[in-house]
């Protein structure tokens, strides 16, 4: 039985002084981690279980599927890269029709109630509406992860960044993932570029600004056998396809007491077409 949830989502507002929004990943103590303003709004999130097939990468910016992974432990990064990356590349090629896929990183998230998100080993679900890459950042990713001789020809054709997200260990009943249908997003007005400052470089993500037209969706109680592909960047910019899907973890008020804390993995991939 599909059920909708009313909950509060955290959106972004730019700094009131007009400065460039930033998030400093490893800000030294005493320096603010970010300068943008958190902007909470109550929204309705629709459970699309039973009609998942209506949502595709090209119309909504995300696409659900079902295929159990062969790798199931997700405890060791080297094992994940050796075992889970190749099977995920195969899966993504079959779903998207892409000819070349390069996974450039992954994040395992395990919610730890009462703990802070303290570095790469303790990543938790992100309770803010965002998209992972701006167009400029996505092109920079290609330059960063591929040989310079290959880049021009790869970027001359269709190119995307897509995340492959799935629960691990148990169904994601606690703090599930909500996705915003791109057809309800005003690309120019709703997305706020936020500099992502690392010790050695800068990236750039989009924070989402509140728009009452946003249509938020989730797949209730996603299991480890289920996955969602999330478009983070798209080189086709003529309005014919979705360019991205803002997303966020959210506290589902329908979560039963005692549900195990959410555990999930996302892979981030450069996706190329001939």
Biggest beta sheet summary: 5 strands, mixed
Radius of gyration: 18 Å
What is the H-and-E element order?
EEEEHEEHHEEHEEEEEE
Strand order of the largest sheet: 1-3-11-8-13
Mean model confidence by pLDDT = 94
Class per helix and strand makeup: alpha+beta
Distance between the termini: 41 Å
Share in helix: 10-25%
Q: pLDDT below 50 for ≥5 consecutive residues: which ranges?
A: none
Overall strand count: 14
Strand percentage: 25-35%
Instruction: Work out the helix count.
Output: 4
Instruction: Choose one word for the global shape.
Output: globular
Give an overview in words:
The chain has 274 residues and is of the alpha+beta class. 15% of the residues lie in helices and 34% in strands. The protein has a five-stranded mixed beta sheet, with no helix packed on it. Strands 4-12-7-14-5 form a five-stranded antiparallel beta sheet, sandwiched between helices. The chain has a four-stranded mixed beta sheet with strand order 2-9-10-6. The chain starts with a strand and ends with a strand. The model has no long low-confidence stretch (mean pLDDT 94). This is Methyltransferase. Residues 113-124 have a biased composition (Basic and acidic residues).
